[in-house]
Specification:
8 helices, 243 residues, six-stranded parallel sheet, single chain, alpha/beta, binds flavin mononucleotide
């Protein structure tokens, strides 16, 4: 009891973000004990630069999936422009054969662009990943499925363990399968031991759900754009805490 009380007092003294026995200990190694004691006394955790990656799995470069992800990334940067770096990767135009993950060889003349993505996918600063897909027949695109299958390689070291994951889907209809698509992609992200978040408040559902009005434009879809903003913000907020 006495110990519990003393511990609580200590935690109050160093601030509530102190799931921080770990944070303070890690910080001590990086910044030196006195600097950490100073920030702890001020009730803060030392800010760390993190990277949020958005990956568009639409085969159409620069179209609605990538537009939605740009909205997410802008909202992520707005959380802390000094410490949150963002990048959009578009898989459009890349050859990502999914069959390799099942142990099959490349087909004749087939190339594999997946290995060139690995340095970015395993960047130590990477703290959050947002995967975006167009809805194809009520589910993710073929490029998304192939990419997720190839990520099996990350499970060797669980390189995405505890990275924050969010998902975005764009469909031609307002209710064209966005939520099903989000859930399918999330299942693969759970397989990477990621920490999944949805779009944050006030929308607060399972991710960003956007509607392409047939003119390759999402800007008319105000509620959908709001989910993209809330997803980007939520991924950045949680990623900062995790880091
Ligand atoms: C093969 C294919 C299947 C599609 N299936 C659906 C669908 O099931 N529901 C839907 O609402 N839209 C469907 N669409 C429309 C796309 O989801 C929509 O145009 C999306 O905005 C495309 O994303 P992009 O602009 O990033 O390429 C389909 C499009 C294609 C090419």
């Amino acid at each position: 009891m006495q110990n519990d009380l003393s511990r609580r007092k200590f935690l109050e003294a160093v601030g509530t973000t102190v799931a921080t026995g770990a944070t303070v200990a890690a910080g001590a190694a990086v910044f030196g004990t006195s600097a950490v004691a100073a920030v702890a006394a001020a009730g803060q955790t030392p800010a760390k630069s993190i990277k949020i990656l958005a990956i568009s799995t639409s085969p159409r470069k620069g179209k609605t999936t990538s537009a939605g992800l740009k909205v997410c990334l802008e909202a992520a940067r707005a959380v802390d422009s000094e410490h949150v770096e963002t990048e959009l990767i578009e898989l459009a135009g890349m050859s990502i054969p999914g069959a390799l993950s099942a142990g099959l060889p490349l087909g004749p003349g087939e190339k594999d662009d997946f290995p060139q993505l690995l340095p970015k996918l395993t960047d130590p600063k990477l703290a959050g990943i947002i995967i975006g897909s167009p809805v194809y027949f009520g589910n993710m695109s073929y490029l998304c499925a192939a990419f997720l299958d190839r990520l099996t390689v990350l499970r060797k070291t669980f390189a995405w363990s505890n990275k924050v994951g969010g998902v975005l889907a764009v469909a031609g209809a307002r209710n064209g399968g966005q939520e099903q698509t989000l859930r399918s992609i999330q299942a693969a992200m759970f397989g990477q031991e990621m920490v999944l978040v949805g779009d944050g408040r006030p929308t607060a559902h399972c991710g960003a759900t956007l509607w392409n009005n047939g003119k390759d434009d999402i800007s008319h879809d105000e509620p959908g754009v709001a989910t993209a903003k809330n997803l980007g913000r939520r991924v950045a907020e949680v990623a900062r805490r995790m880091a």
